[in-house]
Amino acid sequence: MPVTTTAVIEPRVKAAHCPHCGGEFRLLDHEAPAPAIRRVDVMCRQCSAPRSFWFRVLRTELN
Ligand SMILES: [Zn+2]
Asked: What does the pLDDT read at residue 4?
């Protein structure tokens, strides 16, 4: 998922729902495996199903 700023990552993850039970996710971990990549590991609050979200941060060049 491309985003323009890391600030929108958490709200997007919190707005998502578990595909198994429709429950909300709890954020477990936030990682940056590469400079423009963010990985967010979450777990369903209801059924504990794990899921990872990948984001690509599109940087805006400032001139
Ligand atoms: Zn669930």
From this structure: 87
Q: Which of 47, 40, 1 is nearest to 21 (CA)?
A: 47
Please give the model's pTM, rounded to 2 decimal places. 0.81
Instruction: Give the residue among 29, 40, 28 at the shortest CA–CA distance from 3.
Output: 40
Q: Give the up-direction half-sphere exposure of residue 58: CA atoms within 13 A in the CB hemisphere.
A: 4
CATH topology of domain 2-56: N-terminal domain of TfIIb (2.20.25)
Q: CB within 5 A of ion ligand 1: which residues? A: 18, 20-21, 23, 44, 46-47, 49
Q: How far is the CA of 28 from the centre of ligand 1 (A)?
A: 15
